Amino acid sequence: MKPVTGESGILLIDKPYRWTSFDVINKVRSVIKNQTGLKFKVGHAGTLDPLATGLLIVCYGKKTKSLSQFMELDKEYIATLQFGATTPCFDLEKPIDKTFPYKHITEEMVKNILLKYTGEQEQVPPIFSAKQIDGKRAYKFARNGEQIKIKAKKINIYSLKLINFKLPEIQIKIVCSKGTYIRSLARDIGNELQSGAHLTALRRTRVGTYNVEQAMIPEEFMRLMNLT
Question: Where are the alpha helices (DSSP H) in 54-203?
Fold first, then answer.
């Protein structure tokens, strides 16, 4: 059965590594147009960074009016953090700019910090982000080398669980509210542990009751739409 059967609906896409969220939207829009001859409005409920993978909720047609409802849902991520080094964007998009000691970090220390960062809190988004500042994306200021101050915003981290501890890396599971930057969380955890940290992998596994196991990779979507 084709995943697009009417003039509106929801698609669950497993965003590939290095794809932008808009790459997914453009692909879905193109495939729908090629197969139906119709031009539908297509949008997604929550951006994923290019280096992140996982669940992207895509709406088309009149269902795009429901995007804000999906954005309000809690989100679950699996993140891998590396201690001992930082990058300007807090992930692998930019090269390492500083190094720090990390061998003093223990599993108990990490668990205590995760408890500290559970709950409602103020978080400063990364300068390399799509955050709007005076009508301009923050990353545009960053790419021009401009120094700007980004205001902290309220977020809620419902749970933080340590999955794996093997220095210099740890793996954690995060359940959080919309607007939470996992890259910023990595920065803050590194600072709290008197070291530095950045993301080396990030995967969104759930949004509300929607799970990444239900999602299609773009190639599967194309195959089901009889385009491959």
Answer: 67-71, 107-116, 138-143, 182-192
Burial of residue 10, with CB atoms counted within 10 A of its CB: 0-12 exposed, 13-18 middle, 19 or more buried: middle
Q: Do 9-72+209-224 and 76-206 agree at the fold level?
A: yes
0.85 surpassed by pTM: yes
Q: What is the DSSP string of 97-154?
A: -EE---TT--HHHHHHHHHHTSEEEEEPPPSSS--EETTEEHHHHHHTT----PPPEE
134 among known catalytic residues: no
Class of domain 76-206: alpha beta
Tens of pLDDT, residue by residue over 127-139, are: 765 665 555 555 5
Catalytic-role residue among 14, 49, 91, 188: 49
Beta bridge partners of 211: 206
CATH number for the region 9-72+209-224 comes to: 3.30.2350.10
Domain ranges of the chain: 9-72+209-224, 76-206
